[in-house]
Amino acid sequence: MDRDERWCNLCDTRRHLAHLGMIQMQLTPTILENDWVRLEPMTELHRETLRPLAADPNIWALMTLRGDGEHFDAWFDLMLATQETGHQISHVIFRKSTNEMVGHSAYLVISTTNQRAEIGWTWYDAAARGTEVNPACKLALLGQLFACGAERAELKTHGLNKRSQAAMLKMGANHEGTLRRQMRTWRGDLRDTVWFSVLKEEWPDVKVGLEKRLT
Description:
Blueprint: H1 3-19, E1 32-33, E2 37-41, H2 47-50, H3 72-84, E3 89-95, E4 100-111, E5 116-124, H4 133-147, E6 152-158, H5 162-171, E7 174-184, E8 190-199, H6 203-213
Parallel strand pairs: 5-6
Antiparallel strand pairs: 1-2, 2-3, 3-4, 4-5, 6-8, 7-8
């Protein structure tokens, strides 16, 4: 059974459960697009274009895994393998102003029955950081997630990643707290993990804020 057949079977199961009233969220791979970015579901065809973007070691300094240099293929394979389970949807990101690939972001830990997913594994090429790319990506990803029936979007980051925490607060996400020594990094140390969320009823205000940053 190939990847498309597995996704079709998974979608059939979700539709059946939704018909029975057991789930209301149906999140499947699709191209996400707005005026600033285009996010394509990641496939093997994206490997070599994404590779040089991931080569910057600064991207991975506060990540749990490395994806630079010799570590890239193992990271990329893991993203695809997790996607095969139906619990993750990875995207490669194109910046429309340059029509160039600039990074990666994913839906993680997709829980259809609990109507939630995390947005994570987000990283950008240096030239795209601090630009319209991040708010535009969050606008696309959160919009699709809530349109598909989510009640909750989750985001988390390293306790030392103050830039990421500031971006989540600026976006309007709710700071839920810190889980101390919660996850081991590729260096072997245990990191503190800071959690944020956006609920369905909070999304309209968050959306307005993101749109204002993009105009």
